[in-house]
Amino acid sequence: MPYNHQQMAPYLYLGFLPVTVAQNRNQQGYRSNGVNYLFTNCDSNPNSYMAFYFNHNHHVALNYAGCCDSTLMHDWVTHGTAVPSSRYLPQEFYFFFELHMGGCGGYAIPPTIIHDVQGAALGLRFDYDNPCVPSPCQNGGSCYPNGGNQFICECSEGFTGTLCQNIA
Description:
This protein folds into two domains: 5-108, no CATH class; 128-168, Laminin, CATH 2.10.25.10. By secondary structure, it is mainly beta. It is 10% helix and 26% strand. The model has no long low-confidence stretch (mean pLDDT 84). The strands form four sheets. A four-stranded antiparallel beta sheet has the order 1-4-5-6, with no helix packed on it.
């Protein structure tokens, strides 16, 4: 059960592992931008989850006293790729959250441990014909689907063109 469930409920709980996997004291973690961030589950604790709180009464979150700060809890933020501001979701999509990689992975809430993050939004990935796979954008440009088989390239600084193929 999420640590802040009593004072900040209701919440949406997203568990990552079945108990049978965590009981093995195996290697666990997550993947961000194609890089694996791993830890060894040292105590078979299956509490690997993310909880999103509605917190309609604006309660202050509780944190485990002196617990659980780790590089693993920061890497997904520090090594993530920011989306262009034109693709930001409206503020009402973001919620206070707690992230727990149980069994010695870490525990984090903003702003106590994750200082640069105020909230998180849940997105569910599904497969579809994506015109950006593999990316047609050149020179470090970012590809974004734009309906059907259409796409838009957002070019890195110093490049222009529909595929970012021209030096500015």
